[in-house]
Amino acid sequence: MDSLSDENKRLVQQMELEYRRKGAALSEDEFNELTKLNLKLEELEVSFQRNIDSRDEKTLFTRGELEGLPDTYFKDREIRDIGGGKKYVVSTCSADYYLLMNHAQLESTRRAMFLVQNNRCTDNVHVLNTAIQIRQEKAKLLGYETHAEYALEPHMAKTPQAAYDMLTELRKNLTELGSKELEQLEQLKRSDMHAVGKIYEGFFEWDRSFYANKLSNQNFSTSNLRCYFSLPQVIRNMFELYQTLFGVTIVEMENPRVWHEDVEMYELWEADKETFVGHFYTDFFHRPGKSRISVHNIRSGYNDETRQYPVCAIVACFAKPEPSTPVLLHHTEVEMLMGELGRVFQNMLCKTKLAKFHGCKALEQDFVETPIQILKDFMWSPHILDKIARHYKTGESIPHDLVQQLQAAKSNGAGLSYLRQVFLAMYDLAIYNSADTVDANTLFNSMNTDISLISCGGTRTFVVAKLGYFIKHTLASKYYAHLWSQVNSADILHSCFLKDGIDMSEVGMAFRTIVLEAGGSKDSMDGLSMFLGREPNTRAFLCSLGANSI
To answer: What is the Cα 206 distance to its own chain's centre?
Structure first.
């Protein structure tokens, strides 16, 4: 091992860890038992999802009970004649459910729909309880105390305690903010109850979406921002930003060989235009079979006798432009596009010797979204928006007052929203980091009110029975990972990129060299600490939300 390069040492260490975690060190009988446990878990995952897919329940409401829903909600909707009156059929599918919960004015309607939705897969509680037990048996067989200990070992957090410490700090500092936000929502509901002569009896889970949506609509609508985000202009300005950040030059290819006329091909060179980096494709417009925006790694970069250059493609599904009007994007689409283009550059700029460590796929699950989140968050910065957003007719920059309103809208309800995420992550660790038998549903309901501050009003519900996060083998014990990435991205963004007086191009080149070029060839915690010059913390993330009590 001493004669190996650092990257080759990491390869050997990771291979040994992967084999051990798959049971290579077990006896034949133990390995056979591990195989049986894995097969049971696969069956349970399939059963859990099948139960959700096959239990699409329906309920009936009069038009009056659906007051607040737009006219389009009723178009082509099934109607049944019940006792001489007409009632509309509403299902628990996402399109029906979330629109109703966001807009139905009657609390009784929202409550009824909430109960139907969250009591439709009750047998999944047993499925989840069984999966928790089997995962604990599997962890013990492989030499771990708990499944959470097993699951987090190869990731940035390393231990359940590290993840739990981060979540505990977030909870402590977000609870006060969440409580203030809850008071605002409660006041809205009190006013509604008073207006119809009803007694206010509390704020419950079925009120959350409706009043959050109501408060958001009172404060700010992002629809009037689209004129500042024409797709051609946004792409051009994002390319310029990425060139400045990472010291590269993007060159569009003329008459490239591509799979469709909408596809464009680009070469990526170092800024001096002498060193080739790789090439990528953009395929932005709708065609049958395409759906969400995504990045596809076509070829990883690696060193053989010569450099094998990376190739990747970004694919989206934007509507094609009209002859007189370009495609105008919503801010959320701009944010997503910036992040996915960042994923392209994350793949292109990686300089590992081995393809195994190249790009996004090689990063720890709790760090893989961090570089992307940084770049998405650029789209909330006044300084960056001034470079990206231009009116598609006049070329004028987006007004500062609109940017301020946009930033305020981002903070709306952030405390309660993130407390919900903290709860789900803590719950995930609670069920998988205990050697004792747990009842998944009972624990879910008790922790929910305690942490997220909003209760189910004493109703008997089985919310956890339709949440697939906790049973999927790729996610079990790792719900914390998204928050972990967001905390670290905020630390990098506000401590480095957006710090007053900092040259962003210098910071971008340092980030490229220390983090992006390393890919998975180094432990991400080591790279992050080296870039920051210290251990990461939650301070910037909390301050960005207005939770400044630390």
So the answer is: 23
pLDDT in tens, 383-393: 899 999 999 99
Give the other-Cβ count within 10 Å of 129's Cβ.
16
- How would you classify residue 83: left for phi > 0, otherwise alpha for psi between -120 and 50, otherwise beta? left
Give me the helix-helix angle, 480-492 and 370-377, nearest 10°: 50
Say whether pTM exceeds 0.90.
Answer: yes
C-alpha to C-alpha distance for 251 and 276, rounded to whole angstroms: 11
Q: Could you say which DSSP state residue 303 is in?
A: E
pLDDT single digits (tens) 276-310: 999 999 999 999 988 889 999 999 999 877 899 99
Cα–Cα distance, 184 to 190 (Å, whole number): 10
Closest among 180, 152, 154 to 425, alpha carbons compared = 152
Give start and end residues of each alpha helix (H) in 196-292.
Answer: 205-219, 231-246
What are the tokens at 125?
């509680």
Closest by Cα among 34, 41, 23, 142 to 476: 41
**C-alpha torsion 251→254→257→261, nearest 10:** 100
**Torsion angle, alpha carbons of 9, 10, 13, 19, to 10:** -130
